[in-house]
Amino acid sequence: MPLFRSFTIARVFLRYRLDQLLPVERRPLWLRGILAPLKLLPQPKMERGERLRRALEELGPIFVKFGQLLSTRPDLLPPDIVEQLDYLQDKVPPFPSDECAALIEEALEASVDEVFASFEREPLAAASVAQVHAAVLTTGESVVVKVLRPSIGEVIQEDLRLLGVLARGIERFVPDGRRLRPVEVVEDYRHTIEGELDLVREAANGTQLRRNFNNSPLLYVPEVYWEYTRESVLVLERIEGIPVTDLAQLRAQDTNMQLLAERGVEIFFKQVFENNFFHADMHPGNIFVSREHPQRPQYIAIDTAIVGSLSREDQYYLARNLLAMFRRDYRMVAELHVQSGWVRADTPVNTFEAAIRAVCEPIFEKPLGEISFARVLISLFQTARRFDMAVQPQLVLLQKTLLNIEGLGRQLYPQLDLWKTAHPFLERWMRDRIHPKTIVGEIKRYGPEWLEKFPQMPQLVYSALEQSRELAPQLENIGEKLASGQRRGRWQYLRRVGGVFLAAGALALSKPQWLEQLPPSGWALGIAALVLLLWP
Predict the structure, then answer these.
(1) Is 183 annotated for ligand binding?
(2) How do residues 90-107 score in pLDDT, each as one tens digit?
(3) Is 303 a catalytic residue?
(4) What is the DSSP code (8-state) at residue 95?
């Protein structure tokens, strides 16, 4: 089987002349000699991006999904190839309904007729990993039943092994292969596809996302019926909504398109920064719009197999990077990359700053409403890669999600200014992060574990000072507004610093047995915090 599959891949490779994807000038002499006989083959009359897309489609659903992953990596591939890969559709013929029913019965240890009052034999949708059927529970609820394809795990593992061999070959023998990081990309894909093979994990992700947006006007997530959910079978509440790409239906019901687009952006930032748990597969096929309240539209999200989260440090550095970048403070962007560990500690900051400026300045010559937020982030990561930035899997997922959200928002409302929506959110989140109430709340929540963060106090003080400095220009105005703004800025400055001192003092005083060993500096911290917080 592996040998036969290898011949199939080679045949498709030659048929679409994928060797031509690599520029001639980058091929060493030995490789040119090996590929020379291929000139005798007929030349496909299509562009390189279309050739790659058709080759992946011919190789089957696992390669289609791999191509979909590649389409989210414009930091690695040229724009014309990414554009063609965006057209890949994960649609395959369904497997027989009798076989589907047998799989359900095996997983639930009960017949389909015992579990469901009715079960539609014709699937609602069929994809490479699973297919979905409509059903009604014996208790009357309308549901959808997602069932993994038979033996799909074995097929995926086989194709993953072959992709790994190809990736190692590209990295070793193709010029510029290491820069493309093919082995790394295949590993990313392995984690993604293996996550889709466990429907219990998908159900848990959906339950968490539903809890985060419980009673929210922004997003609705279908309920999971846990008693009927197993690793290979998932039963969900059936939702009725309009596909987000069906603009005709959305306009027919007089949907507020501007608000719909802005709410999509708000959902993204709420997931990333407030909940730190984001749906990382928000392509249009997984997003619907409720038919209720078209003037106050609500999204519906399905397929939560792929989710992401950031460390608290990555959240902080990402927010500050975005704020600094849009203020054109490239020095700060460079320093933040070093502080976060995204680039090596010995990276020359001046050189890195100059590289970031060269990439970003042409972009920012445009009006903010015309700037692609996601493309700016991609450009930033591309620049950092030249300075040996290690790939951060969580940032790749975030980048992919932001591309989906921004593309969707611009499709719904072309005038969408993503930065106008995102900027106030990021500013508010940064202010809240160093508010005294937040810090004291952290102490109460984590108790003695917060001791681990004690060595970070100098950095927190520095961050508070930096944030106050960054916010100061926003408080400047004329006349009375200037005076009041300066007073308010001073109060915020002192309150933040006082909050940091208060956190340190509260940490030391929170356990009575520590009082005996409390140094005079601990008392000084607490007293200084009170003075600063009560300063008029």
Answers:
(1) no
(2) 667 888 989 999 999 999
(3) no
(4) P
